[in-house]
Automatic annotation (TrEMBL):
Pfam families: HAMP, HATPase_c, HisKA. Gene3D superfamilies: 1.10.287.130, 6.10.340.10, Histidine kinase-like ATPase, C-terminal domain (3.30.565.10). Residues 186-238 form the HAMP domain. It is found in: Membrane. One of its GO terms (molecular function) is kinase activity. PROSITE patterns: HAMP, HIS_KIN. It comes from Clostridium tanneri. The keyword Methyltransferase does not apply. This is histidine kinase.
């Protein structure tokens, strides 16, 4: 499966996106905090100007003057400053609630302001500085002096943030980054937990459990591989159980098929040993029966040996290039007498072109031996047995068909099962091991071909396909 965007690529993109968002957010928050905190020291000049403007607008009413001072006093108090309204003789006429002087010598403040040309502003050092601002104004032909003085606060909230802006910004950015990463990776972490949970479930023996596949990255690939692994394990265990069952069936069926002729042989040997025959001809008859039963045993053991070797893959094919036409014609010559003696007529339809294939001629000949033998044994008599050889693209197809009755669909499906016989009584088929078609199918598969059967209108057809 092709992964369009891998987990590493997504993680790198997520890292940069989270870093960018956290930096922008932290900067915005810091600036917002700095914006919302008034820099009173910086704005004192504007406060003084506004106070003087407002003072000029009111009449010389004590209540109004005190009210005006009260409105501005909060700004001054936050910077640890005091406001006074003093006449030209230094007598304090009005003052804020945080001051109590009655007389102030104005000359030092006037000299300082002349020397500095401006009020002393806070420069950000932690000790603070002395601040003074004196403004003279004339109201109703009377001179008033507005004096603001005191020691400024060593550090206001704005300057605290400004001083530690880098550290605060870094800590805030890291906090935001961690929160965003935790939020964005939460689905993946949950999916990893599901994969781990699925692995535990499978490891405990539940091979039918499947992990839900999500996304299109390495995690989805891991989930897919785990599911495939579970499926393959399930299939292997199922196959092992089937193999074990097949072994048991093989032993049981072989024991059954070996017992009957062996019992007969032992029985006739006992008769001969006890001289239970009356004439020499009867003795020869018993010996004949023993010989036939021994041949049956020999065929059965040979078939069992061949089948086990084919099934285990321990048999080697002697591959060679040869003409399958010639092989079939040779076998026809060998079997034609048997067909005729059983009242069967073999009808051939072989392609004239010589077809060269690569295979083991002896093993392929065994397939035709089994198919010809079955046709002779189970065909309706008299009838025809049809043999056809055709060439299709990169393969050769050999079809053998014959008429037969009392064959069910279940029988056709089970024909290639070992020890399966259509007429259920084994004792009636002592000359058959029930392994012929199973062996033939295995040989065809070893040649990368296949052997199939179909039954229609009381005619069974075996099709052998071999690649060229």
């Amino acid at each position: 499966m092709k992964i369009r965007f891998g987990l590493r690529f997504k993680m790198v993109i997520m890292f940069f996106v989270c870093a960018f968002i956290s930096m922008i957010t932290s900067t915005t928050i810091i600036r917002s905090l700095m914006h919302d905190t008034v820099n009173y020291t910086y704005n004192l000049s504007y406060t003084n100007i506004n106070f003087i403007k407002d003072f000029k607008k009111i009449s010389l009413d004590s209540n109004k003057i005190n009210k005006l001072i009260e409105n501005y006093e909060e700004t001054y108090k936050k910077n640890n400053l005091k406001i006074y309204i003093v006449n030209s003789k230094g007598i304090v006429l009005y003052h804020g609630t945080n001051s109590s002087e009655k007389f102030i010598d104005l000359q030092p403040f006037i000299d300082k302001q002349i020397a500095l040309q401006d009020e002393i502003r806070y420069d950000g050092n932690e000790k603070g500085v002395d601040y003074s601002k004196i403004s003279a104004l004339k109201v109703n032909d009377e001179i008033f002096n507005v004096l603001v003085k005191g020691s400024t606060n060593p550090m206001n909230s704005y300057d605290l943030i400004r001083k530690h802006q880098g550290d605060l910004g870094f800590l805030l950015a890291m906090t935001i980054f961690t929160i965003i990463v935790a939020f964005l990776t939460r689905p993946k972490l949950k999916y990893i937990k599901k994969i781990c949970s699925g692995l535990n479930e499978i490891s405990e023996g539940n091979l039918k459990y499947r992990i839900i596949e999500k996304g299109n990255d390495e995690l989805q690939l891991i989930a897919s591989n785990i599911n495939n692994m579970a499926e393959e394990l399930e299939e292997k265990i199922k196959n092992e159980k089937n193999i074990e069952k097949s072994k048991q069936d093989l032993i049981t069926n072989a024991a059954h098929d070996l017992r009957t002729p062996l019992t007969n042989i032992i029985g006739y040997i006992e008769i001969i040993k006890e001289r239970g025959y009356k004439t020499e001809d009867e003795l020869l008859k018993y010996v004949d029966i023993i010989s036939n039963k021994a041949e049956v045993l020999k065929k059965l053991t040979n078939d069992l040996f061949m089948y086990t070797k084919l099934s285990s893959g321990s048999i080697n094919l002697n591959m060679d290039s040869f003409s399958i036409n010639e092989l079939i014609e040779q076998l026809i010559d060998e079997y034609i007498i048997l067909f005729e003696s059983n009242n069967l007529k073999l009808k051939e339809d072989l392609i004239s072109e010589s077809i060269i294939i690569n295979g083991d001629p002896d093993k392929l000949a065994r397939i035709f031996d089994n198919l010809f033998t079955n046709a002779i044994k189970y065909s309706i008599k008299p009838s025809n047995v049809n043999l056809k050889l055709i060439k299709e693209e990169k393969r050769v197809v050999v079809s053998i068909s014959n008429s037969c009755t009392d064959l069910e669909e279940e029988d056709v499906n089970n024909l290639f099962e070992r020890f399966y016989m259509v007429d259920k009584s084994r004792s009636e088929n002592e000359n058959s091991s029930g392994l012929g078609l199973a062996i033939s199918k295995t040989i065809a598969e070893l040649h990368h071909g296949k052997l199939t059967a179909e039954y229609k209108d009381e005619v069974i057809t075996f099709n052998l396909e071999i690649p060229m």
